[in-house]
Design brief:
- The chain is mainly alpha-helical and about 140 residues long.
- It contains five helices and no strands.
- It has one domain (about 25-140).
- α1 packs antiparallel against α2 (about 65-90), α1 crosses α4 and α4 packs antiparallel against α5 (about 120-140).
Length: about 140
């Protein structure tokens, strides 16, 4: 096969020709990008949940126009999260992105602690299991 006939792949590409698996380094870099994108989606989800919690805690004290602005902000945050999710699931494999979406639960545990809720050993152990299990599932190496 002549050099000019070989398929070329750009440095940013996650797609490889059939029959040519990526190196462990390429897979690791792709997984790193997937983790960053999915963390952005999880953080948007956490921000939306925090805004909703704040609205629920203070709804009787807020003016109606402020409630409307907060609800519109939550809708906008969720639209942004949907766009990030769409990008992630289009660009990366579902097997590496979907497990990372479960990082929402440990993040919400941290929010609960920040809001002064009681958190027990079982909740902390569960959050650690979810976190490490999600990272383990999303960082598989293809041989």
């Amino acid at each position: 096969m002549a050099l000019r006939d070989r398929p070329t792949i750009s440095a940013d590409s996650d797609h490889r020709p059939a029959g040519r698996p990526g190196s462990a380094r390429d897979v690791f870099r792709s997984n790193q990008r997937a983790i960053v994108v999915m963390m952005a989606a999880v953080m948007l989800q956490v921000i939306g949940a925090i805004v909703l919690k704040t609205i629920a805690d203070h709804w009787s004290e807020l003016a109606i126009w402020l409630l409307a602005i907060a609800v519109i902000a939550v809708i906008f945050i969720n639209i942004m999260r949907l766009c990030v999710w769409g990008y992630a699931h289009q660009r990366f494999s579902l097997s590496s992105t979907f497990p990372l979406s479960s990082l929402f639960y440990p993040a919400m545990l941290a929010v609960a602690v920040a809001y002064g809720d009681t958190v027990g050993v079982r909740q902390i152990a569960g959050a650690l299991l979810i976190t490490f299990g999600s990272l383990w599932l999303s960082t598989k190496i293809v041989s």
